[in-house]
Fold each of these.
Amino acid sequence: MKEKLVEVKNLSKYFNVSGGKLKAVDNISFDIYKGETFGLVGESGCGKSTAGRTMLRLYEPTTGEVNFEGKDICKLSSKEMKEVRKKMQMIFQDPYASLDPRMTVEDIVGEPFEIYGSLKGEERYNRVIELLDIVGLSEEHAQRFPHEFSGGQRQRVGIARALALNPEFIICDEPISALDVSIQAQVVNLLKELQEELGLTLLFIAHDLSMVRYISDRVGVMYLGNLVELTESEKLYEKPLHPYTKALLSAIPVADPDLQKSRNRIKLEGEVPSPINPKPGCRFVDRCQYATDICRNTNPVLEEIEDGHYVACLRVKEINNL
Ligand SMILES: Nc1ncnc2c1ncn2[C@@H]1O[C@H](COP(=O)(O)OP(=O)(O)OP(=O)(O)O)[C@@H](O)[C@H]1O
Ligand SMILES: [Mg+2]
């Protein structure tokens, strides 16, 4: 039996905006197993970052639970939360914005030790150099400032800082999308290596489905605040069951010609609807070629359709001849 590290249960995050309630994340549930990489994908604005931030309580959830090592972190006091935060870190999309330009790399990577008062002086310095080494940088980089680095190097600094306190779990929020294509693979490979060496558990957020497949053990697909499909990454790519996932995947060319042929190109019609005061029923209804009246009236819930393969679609069986 795989051990659950993180359990997200009926988690929602709504923002009050002038037009009403913006349901950025609406009742999502999933588990992340110890040592795995869980990919979270979906179009811009579907709630990926909000989900990640809420899981770390950088945003307070509107409802729901986030169990980490069996404890609901949403119920912890700020003092208890500070302890748990050591184990849960985040790497951000934009290494330009997330590193303080006035701080040297030594101070950036060593900052967590200040916050926790754990290492000082030479010990701190040595650990910083060790961390730089782990991410493929060296001692000579320690006294430099963020602007003196390339985007890829800067992301390595962000990763070193995230590793400082020996976390168990790291949320990587589009860690490569601001980087040149030529260095994206390097940073992804670094994350993969670190995961194996350090036994990390990762939540990897991205739009780019091909990269997510490469790095993830399992993948969850989000659409407008909801989780619509979840399964092992190979399964998702070979046999997507939700109409939205099918459409997303049909846009990516695959090397296998048989698979390519069997995958009808599906064009996503229409715009992503607004997450403000969403209508009841399936959120994908206006863009779905299979939608019928039932889809407009009933909210689909994530159900296990095949072993370990979860789909939230009222017509999933008919559509897939199951
Ligand atoms: N602090 C906030 N206040 C109000 N609305 C917000 C806030 N943060 C996010 N939103 C809204 O919540 C929805 C989800 O945003 P989020 O950033 O989580 O999406 P995303 O999937 O990460 O998108 P991207 O791929 O572009 O990063 C969007 O409609 C966004 O405008
Ligand atoms: Mg985002």
Amino acid sequence: MAGASTSLHGQRILLCVCGGIAAYKAAELVRRLRDAGAQVRVAMTDSALHFVSAATFQAVSGEPVRTTLWDPGAEAAMGHIELARWATRVVVAPATANTLAKLAHGFADNLVTTLCLATTAPLTVCPAMNHRMWLHPATQANLALLRERGAQVVGPEDGPLAEGESGPGRLAEPTAIVAALPA
Ligand SMILES: Cc1cc2nc3c(=O)[nH]c(=O)nc-3n(C[C@H](O)[C@H](O)[C@H](O)COP(=O)(O)O)c2cc1C
């Protein structure tokens, strides 16, 4: 099995989940990351919450899940900065076209983009979207910028997409994402 031999022991992975159909696969990714030995905390965008609940990620990660920058309890101690410092790697999966654009241009307008800007941990993005969104020159230019800055890009894979079409845009399989992460 692709990810089974990857050891992520000692790694603290901040998984940022964005609002794409593949958000449900991020729950399996949490399981696979933990199986590989990583500690995982999850942050979600507002759009991600339309696809899967925070309770799912809390259950699979065994950790509280952050869904907003504006959480008075967590932010009394600047929780987002704490979380950004805690991470030894940030993985954005699924990474939407929207969030990729924001990350490429240094936006910090929600919890996920703020965490990504506030951390010095290496960044892995796992794009997932409609193939036309993926092939759009704007998305490709954003990806090129992120790559230039050292971000690791895993996927997307080619194949059937949620809309009944086919092409590049499927989220890489959770096992393939785990296998791609540096030990
Ligand atoms: C049903 C549905 C499915 C969507 N799937 C995707 C997707 O797979 N990838 C993507 O980039 N955007 C997708 N979108 C659009 C995003 O949800 C939208 O751009 C949103 O602003 C993303 O916000 P976020 O990047 O903050 O999570 C979808 C929208 C809807 C309504």
